[in-house]
Design goal:
The protein folds into 2 domains: 6-36 and 157-333, Rossmann fold (3-Layer(aba) Sandwich), CATH 3.40.50.1100; 43-143, Rossmann fold (3-Layer(aba) Sandwich). Helices cover 35% and strands 16% of the residues. It contains 11 helices and 10 strands. The strands form 2 sheets. Strands 1-2-10-7-8-9 form a 6-stranded mixed beta sheet, with helices on both faces. A 4-stranded parallel beta sheet has the order 5-4-3-6, with helices on both faces. The radius of gyration is 19 Å and the shape is globular. It binds pyridoxal-5'-phosphate.
Length: 334
């Protein structure tokens, strides 16, 4: 197969059955492996869709600048699309970004602005506010605003949803993904629920995120917020891309359990996936007792594990976090 540019290789990612890691789970479990996208994450889909929509509506003109606040994956995908289309790309990120992600963004030509990871959302130094102010200052800038830009979830409604529906031949009964902007789960979930309203959509959330409590009580509680290690799981704001009515349940998982699951996945099923993918596996672990052999579960593995080699796949980092202590649990010792 021949493609005219790398952008044509976005999407149509494989759905792969999980085996050893789900041996004890009474259901058929598949993973939608978004690490197969050229930018190694699901964010390629939204980056292309949001930029092309801004071009069509005249909000982004030739030679313009794309600005966004991103934990890394969306930034890389935006930078990739900008490189091909000839736009400048300015990204604000939090200081919890992994060093490899930072280098990847710079390799793709993005200008990266580091912001403190503990800044509250309304703090002018937070990565959201910084992106907003840069978009106002830079002439010809277009603020992508992935949390509130509805082309984020639309991209998944138009691509990830139909792909999973076809790949499972409509047999899907549970969709589990990690939720941050909500775009992946709400876009994909909306398409799937339109075909089959009783499919359960389960959002994986982090301790330190406001999402689960907001879903259950309607209350945005700043007391829920504290800093944690996972990227792409949970939020300290309520993004506009969330349609909370679509989601049946939010399940919180810990940094440690999710990191250990990502490592176990590589060893058991040979899939090197990102931190949030381990989080969805841990989420599955926590809901497994309600599953039956008739259930067909799809986990969205949002990113490739190579993006986290200095974090969850580093024994040193895992030991520093207190996630592994015993030498026999370390990867190098296996
Ligand atoms: C690695 C990773 N997993 C999952 C997500 C969550 O996807 P979404 O923002 O569409 O909810 C993101 C995005 O923030 C991510 O970068």
């Amino acid at each position: 197969m021949v493609f005219n540019s790398i952008l044509e290789t976005i999407g149509k990612t494989p759905l792969v059955r999980l085996n050893k890691i789900v041996e004890h789970i009474p259901a058929t479990v598949y993973a939608k492996i978004e690490g197969f996208n050229p930018g190694l994450s699901a964010k390629d889909r939204i980056a292309l869709h949001m930029i092309e929509h801004a071009e069509r509506t005249g909000q982004l003109q030739p030679g313009g600048t794309v600005v966004d606040a991103t934990s890394g994956n969306t930034g890389f995908s935006l930078a990739m699309v900008c490189a091909i289309k000839g736009y400048k790309c300015v990204l604000t990120v939090t200081s919890k970004i992994s060093e490899d992600k930072l280098n990847n963004l710079r390799a793709m030509g993005a200008e990266v602005v580091l912001c403190p990871k503990d800044a509250k959302p309304n703090d002018p130094e937070s990565y959201y506010r910084k992106a907003e102010s840069l978009a106002k200052e830079i002439p010809g800038a277009y603020y992508i605003n992935q949390n509130y830009n509805m082309d984020n979830s639309a991209a998944h409604y138009l691509s990830t949803g139909p792909e999973i529906w076809e790949q499972t031949q409509g047999k899907i009964s549970y969709l589990i993904g990690s939720a941050s902007t909500g775009g992946t789960l709400c876009g994909t979930g909306r398409y799937i629920k339109e075909q089959k309203p009783h499919v359960n959509i389960i959002a994986t959330d982090a301790y330190g995120s406001v999402l689960k409590k907001y879903h259950e009580t309607g209350v945005y509680d700043p007391n829920e917020i504290y800093s944690y290690q996972m990227e792409g799981v949970g939020k300290n704001i309520i993004p506009g891309n969330f349609n909370f009515d679509l989601i049946n349940e939010f399940v919180k998982v810990t940094d440690k359990d999710s990191a250990l699951k990502s490592r176990e996945l590589a060893l058991s099923d040979g899939i090197l996936a990102g931190y949030s993918s381990g989080a969805t596996l841990q989420c599955l672990e926590q809901i497994k007792d309600r599953l039956t052999p008739e259930d067909v579960v799809v986990l969205i593995f949002a990113s490739h594990g190579t993006k986290y080699v200095t974090k969850i796949f580093s024994d040193k980092w895992m030991q520093q976090q207190g996630f592994i202590q015993e030498p026999e649990m370390a990867l190098s010792g296996e």
